[in-house]
Structures are given as C-alpha cells and as structure tokens.
C-alpha cells in the first residue's frame, strides 16, 4: 500500500516521520513484553482519551490473557500549545485498589498529562502501575517518569497521526507525521 507522504491540516503541513509498518512492529514488541509481565494478573488497561484510542485498540488487541479496559479523558492542548489547566473531561469510575494498571498514552511530551494521572491513581492504592506510550519525547519531559513500554522515542517535534491530533484533526492517519514550518 502506498504511504501518504504529506498531510495538510488546516494551516499546517505535516510530513511522514514513522510509517505504520514501523509502529506496528514496535507495538508487537511492546505487546510481547506486556504479555510476559502481566500474564495471570488480570490487568486493568486505562487509555487516555482522545489521543490513545488507536494505540489502545492495537495494543490491547494483542494481549492474550483476561484483562479489563477503561478510559479517562484528559485534555490540555489547544492547537500545538499546552494550556495551563488540565481538563478532566471524563473521570475514572472503577475501583482500582490492588489492581495491576497499565496506563496507555499516545504521546508523552512534557509529562504533565501522565503526571496528573499518576498522582490521581496512586491515591487509590493500585497493586502496580506501568505506562505504555506510543511516542516518548525524552528531551521534553519535565518529570521523573519512566514509561516501561515505549514504541518509539522521538525528538521534540509536534506530531499527528495514529490518534494524535492538530486542532482535533489528523487522528485518523495510520502513520506518524511531524509538523513542517514551510509550505
Ligand atoms: O506530556 P504532555 O505534554 O502532557 O502531552 C501529552 C498529551 O497531550 C495530548 O493530549 P491533548 O491534551 O492534546 O488531548 P487529546 O488526547 O484529546 O488529543 C496527548 O494525547 C497526551 O495526552
Ligand atoms: N498531537 C500531539 N499532541 C501532543 N501533545 C503533546 N505533544 C504532542 C504532539 O507532538 N502531538
């Protein structure tokens, strides 16, 4: 199948950074690790909406033992800028005490979103919390957080695709695209 090389979303062009094939290869590697680490533990996967919907689907669909799935909806970005306030649009309703949790993120950038969720989860005494992220920007993170399951590390460019948006669009593309500043 021919890959889309460039995408125009509203006022910005994006160019191909990580093709779908490489993402799927990385997701399979991470899924294998999770299968080994959490076999027999009936983990609860918590996807962070909206961005994580596609990665959550691809990852959880490769978990081979009983598990549970839920979502929380957090938002702090408008366009390509992070806003000051974290909006909790849909909260967690499950009792997670003594549960093995896998949090699923599409992108860990500054780490504000994942840090907010980790603080919230730790108060509820889970047995363990592990983080799975499709993309990790190690040079942007502002917290001492180590995601154990990382599909791809990238530098600090703003990206879209595979769930990640620019101004709510672009989530549908199955590869990752980075913003380009020239036309
Ligand atoms: O590490 P951070 O700097 O906090 O950035 C990462 C977060 O930003 C995006 O969410 P956004 O707030 O855009 O909401 P969305 O998931 O609905 O796109 C992305 O999905 C992550 O959740
Ligand atoms: N879509 C998208 N959202 C983000 N939130 C933080 N960084 C990013 C990014 O690179 N892309």
UniProtKB/TrEMBL annotation:
<dbReference type="InterPro" id="IPR029057">
    <property type="entry name" value="PRTase-like"/>
</dbReference>
<dbReference type="GO" id="GO:0004422">
    <property type="term" value="F:hypoxanthine phosphoribosyltransferase activity"/>
</dbReference>
<feature type="domain" description="Phosphoribosyltransferase">
    <location>
        <begin position="23"/>
        <end position="166"/>
    </location>
</feature>
<dbReference type="GO" id="GO:0046100">
    <property type="term" value="P:hypoxanthine metabolic process"/>
</dbReference>
<dbReference type="InterPro" id="IPR050408">
    <property type="entry name" value="HGPRT"/>
</dbReference>
<dbReference type="GO" id="GO:0032264">
    <property type="term" value="P:IMP salvage"/>
</dbReference>
<dbReference type="GO" id="GO:0006178">
    <property type="term" value="P:guanine salvage"/>
</dbReference>
<protein>
    <submittedName>
        <fullName>Hypoxanthine phosphoribosyltransferase</fullName>
    </submittedName>
</protein>
<dbReference type="GO" id="GO:0032263">
    <property type="term" value="P:GMP salvage"/>
</dbReference>
<dbReference type="InterPro" id="IPR000836">
    <property type="entry name" value="PRTase_dom"/>
</dbReference>
<keyword id="KW-0328">Glycosyltransferase</keyword>
<dbReference type="Pfam" id="PF00156">
    <property type="entry name" value="Pribosyltran"/>
</dbReference>
<keyword id="KW-0808">Transferase</keyword>
<dbReference type="GO" id="GO:0000287">
    <property type="term" value="F:magnesium ion binding"/>
</dbReference>
<dbReference type="GO" id="GO:0005829">
    <property type="term" value="C:cytosol"/>
</dbReference>
